[in-house]
Amino acid sequence: MDRTTTVSGPRLVETYKIPALPPPVDFETLPILKALKEAHKNVAELKGRAGSLPNQGILIDTLTLQEAAASSEIENIVTTQDELYQMNTRLGLYPSPEAKEVALYGSALRLGFEQLHEKKGNISNSTIIALFQTLKRSTGDFRRTPGTALKNDRTGEIVYVPPQSFNDISRQMGELESFINEPLPENIDPLVAMAIVHHQFESIHPFPDGNGRIGRILNVLFLCKLGLLEIPILYLSRYITRNKGDYYRLLQATRDTGDWEPWTLYMLAAVSETAAETTRLVQGIRILMAETKKRLRDQHSKIYSQELINNLFRHPYTRIEYVVDEVGVSRQTAGKYLNELADSGLLKKMKIGLNNYYINGPLVDLLAKP
């Protein structure tokens, strides 16, 4: 099945009765229990490895870019590597419309994590609506106009009709909000609950657009809420991009058959594989930071600072403006620092358009690995 999209149409009849939560099925089958063991091991290792970095905020900034690009790619919003690293939401730098969409996704993800802390671990519907408003630059909320269906891009066939009325959407989102925030039943593992939440959200399809991306943000926020992660760095979008056909097929097959095991196993495999990949990436970043720190101390001791190292890893393509803002030096001094590092080969200086970028090549190569 090709990717489905939201379209407007005539009066439609819902094709799936959205179940109460949790669905009345057995989530403790042997295949699920086996998959849970591996997934939990990999997530715990990722949490520990991320905690070994002196500044976890660097991971949030760096890996959010990767997730934003991968999640947007699922919706056919594709950016190049140059566009990805030239973006800066705070400075309003968007090298293309696609890059701006990716940047908005990153802003929504950060907002969700901030509100998770502000609301003491709760993920409210007001937060979910704020994600939509940030992502779509909108003041809207849940769908109020009937006529929404999901169509197969290739054939034009309607494959799923979500709830149509605002009242039904609001009620079902209220029930989902309760499930997310109340203690889980003893027979529902947190990772299984994440798979349930994602499927339920995508089935309610509460917004006119952006449901897939918002649903993927909810995945990592939910894991942070439950304490499986301290920071939002487990992003499933790259796995879903590689296995997109199975993702859409299993979403719909669960609705058609009521069999939740294949969908749950898919999501647990996504968690397990992504956690292992991200652990390797975090370890690679840790090693690169240590090597860069040593080179700066040995070869550039007069300009060495932890703030400068943080800048070089927070921005794979850094600029004078970023160093001024984050290191706290003048523009002239920032330029001197970056040019010195480029002259020694630690960074690569590149002019893109009217701007000079200073590229952390080893970091870019690490992030680009499949």
Reconstruct the topology from this structure.
Layout: E1 4-8, H1 30-51, H2 56-74, H3 81-86, H4 97-118, H5 125-136, E2 148-152, E3 158-160, H6 166-181, H7 190-204, H8 211-225, H9 237-242, H10 244-257, H11 261-299, H12 306-314, E4 317-318, H13 320-327, H14 331-343, E5 348-352, E6 355-359, H15 361-368
Antiparallel strand pairs: 1-2, 2-3, 4-6, 5-6
Helix pairs in contact: 1-11, 2-4, 2-12, 4-5, 4-8, 6-7, 7-8, 7-11, 10-11, 11-15, 13-14
Structural summary, described in words:
By secondary structure, the protein is mainly α. It folds into two domains: 4-281, Fic-like fold (Orthogonal Bundle), CATH 1.10.3290.10; 300-368, Winged helix-like DNA-binding domain superfamily/Winged helix DNA-binding domain (Arc Repressor Mutant, subunit A), CATH 1.10.10.10. Helices cover 61% and strands 7% of the residues. It contains 15 helices and six strands. The strands form two sheets. A three-stranded antiparallel β-sheet has the order 1-2-3, with no helix packed on it. It has a three-stranded antiparallel β-sheet with strand order 4-6-5. A hairpin with a 5-residue loop joins strand 2 and strand 3 (158-160). Helix 4 (97-118) runs antiparallel to helix 5. The protein is globular.
Descriptive keywords:
15 helices, three-stranded antiparallel sheet, Arc Repressor Mutant, subunit A, Fic-like fold, 370 residues, 61% helix, 2 domains, 7% strand, mainly alpha
